[in-house]
Design brief:
By secondary structure, the chain is mainly alpha-helical. The protein is about 60% helix and about 5% strand.
Length: about 575
């Protein structure tokens, strides 16, 4: 009996049987069809965003959607092409290969494989906590900049302008904007009209499948008016049939070059998936497992590579729609994939006349909900370091565009450096007896030292290689805080751990204090700290002076021999 729960953790779809009922199956079916109506045009648009042939987007919406639904831990997640991941994928490859070429596609497939393997390894090794290294301010700074870049990149497409694609995105956009007089009026009408219709539909008819309706109408109008014959850009021929499953030959030089981008895609795409999973599980009360979701998302990316497509992710908007329309398990993803299969087998010819400016309008509508520019101000109000990390991530992402992975790596390194810098400067305070009977910061509350012969020092940090030097400076300064100091008592309740460097520093301080007839003692030390001390020879030197439970207990024990010595001297 114990084998089944273990299997369900490895193969989450085995647990669907407990959810099967007429209502849940109907909800999953309706949700799957509804999501597919949105996912199909979005998949075409996101392939365009990634500078890839549009039909590759449909490939990314088929097998990866099924695999993520089967192996993910949150049944309501809708996995497939997503805006941020598509942008990251395309931008990462622009410096290596020309867009919309076979080489570019091969590298996109390799990127999907690499980022999927990274996620699969993190999940299998139960090391998903590593992804928590990306702080919220850094992530919001990156998303705000990426959303701005996505929006700007689609403006020329919506207006029918040509835009070069080099390694300097802002310069490319400025060049395109300078040619506004050359816009293609029919393209601008299609793009602008589609965008306005989608905005109005979202505002006044939110339950309508507006994206699908706009795509159908635009395609019909394009075919009737001869939009393509008049210079308009359309989707064109989409190969009918299912993708041929084949992983690419690995170019090791290219793989090494793409490794940082693959890591960033694995990181950012999972953050997108995790944010959706947390929100949905909070509403349903169902448990979701971070490591299992990493496995599911990793396998989905590998499946995308096997399908000849680019990296995929859980879409925040489609996952929300999936949940809202009744999805309760991964069956909804299987239904959505079935709808994509029907499209690939029988309906691709109907998409020939679909104007590309309409796809740009769809992307603009989606990314409009991504930015949260107020988060930048909140970060500055909470912490100067967080504000700096968020701002630098935002600016560097814009500056490095289209290589936006460099922006998030810059923010990640800065946030880690700032965290290390903060940890190297822990808070310390000299304590005095407060009127409420507790020992508190004597500078802040205007208190006196507990006794002319003893200085009480509080150290609010682990005692490790990062903080050992600060601890040593604080103890030495405390020993000089009064002219008649005989002992320094460290209030150690804030020391949660101690490492070899901390023990070495402590040993050196004991030697120094012994040579000057000073005493070093600890009170409130935690079990894990005492356990480390007891495993070393240091315990024989400090043991009796490290087990005091409270400041008062320690002060009484330390002052008693001092008083006895003074009394004996008087006698």
């Amino acid at each position: 009996m114990a084998l089944l729960p273990r299997l369900e953790r490895l193969l989450p779809f085995l647990g669907w049987r407990r959810q099967w009922s007429t209502a849940s199956l109907r909800g999953d079916t309706i949700a799957g069809i509804t999501v597919a109506l949105v996912a199909i045009p979005q998949s075409l648009a996101y392939a365009q965003l990634a500078s890839l042939p549009t039909h590759v987007g449909l490939y990314a919406a088929l097998l990866p959607t099924m695999v993520a639904g089967l192996f993910g831990s949150c049944g309501q997640l809708s996995t497939g092409p997503a805006a941020l991941t598509a942008l990251l994928s395309g931008a990462s490859l622009l410096a290596i290969a020309p867009p919309e070429t076979p080489e570019f596609l091969s590298l996109a497939i390799l990127l999907a494989l690499m980022s999927g393997l990274i996620q699969l390894a993190l999940g299998a090794l139960r090391t998903g906590w590593l992804l928590n290294l990306l702080s919220h301010p850094v992530l919001t700074g990156f998303i705000n900049a990426a959303a701005l870049i996505i929006g700007l990149s689609q403006v020329p497409s919506v207006l029918g302008l040509s835009m070069p694609q080099t390694t300097h995105f802002l310069a490319d956009f400025a060049q395109a904007a300078g040619k506004l007089h050359t816009l293609h009026l029919p393209s601008a009408l299609f793009g602008g009209g589609a965008l306005l219709t989608l905005i109005l539909a979202r505002r006044f008819f939110p339950k309508l499948p507006a994206v699908l309706i706009v795509v159908v109408l635009a395609t019909a109008i394009s075919a009737v008016t001869g939009y393509a014959e008049h210079g308009g850009k359309v989707v064109g021929a989409i190969p009918a049939g299912l993708p041929v499953s084949a992983l690419p030959d690995v170019d090791w030089d290219a793989a090494i070059t793409l490794l940082p981008a693959a890591f960033v895609i694995a990181l950012v795409s999972f953050m997108e998936a995790a944010s959706s999973a947390k929100l949905i599980s909070g509403r349903t009360g169902d448990h979701w497992d971070q490591n299992q979701e990493l496995i599911g998302q990793g396998l989905a990316k590998i499946a995308s590579a096997a399908s000849g497509a680019f990296p995929v992710s859980a879409s925040f908007s489609r996952s929300g729609l999936n949940y809202a329309t009744g999805a309760r398990s991964g069956i909804s993803s299987l239904v959505a994939a079935a709808a994509v299969t029907v499209t690939l087998l029988y309906l691709t010819s109907l998409l020939w006349h679909l104007p590309r400016p309409v796809l740009g309008a769809i992307i603009l509508l989606v990314v409009a909900s991504l930015p949260d520019f107020r988060a930048l101000g909140r970060a500055w109000r909470i912490s100067r370091d967080d504000g700096l990390a968020s701002t630098l991530t935002f600016v560097s992402t814009l500056v490095f565009a289209p290589n936006i992975q460099n922006g998030i790596l810059t923010g990640l390194l800065l946030s880690l450096a700032l965290m290390l810098y903060r940890d190297m400067r822990p808070r310390t305070a000299l304590l005095g007896l407060h009127p409420d009977g507790t020992y508190r910061d004597l500078v802040r509350f205007g208190l006196e030292h507990p006794d002319p012969r003893i200085v009480l020092l509080r150290f609010d940090s682990p005692l490790t290689f990062v903080t050992a030097a600060a601890f040593e400076r604080a103890v030495i300064a405390a020993s000089e805080a009064q002219p008649t100091v005989s002992a320094v008592l460290v209030s150690a309740s804030g020391i949660n751990t101690i490492d070899a460097t901390g023990m070495h520093t402590l040993s050196a301080l004991l030697d120094r204090f012994r040579s000057t007839n000073l005493t070093l003692a600890f009170c409130g030390a935690k079990k894990q700290v005492l356990d480390v001390m007891q495993r070393t020879e240091l315990w024989s030197r400090i043991g009796p002076l490290a087990t005091f439970r409270t400041e008062q207990h320690a002060l009484e024990a330390l002052l008693a021999p001092m008083e006895a010595e003074r009394t004996a001297a008087k006698d």
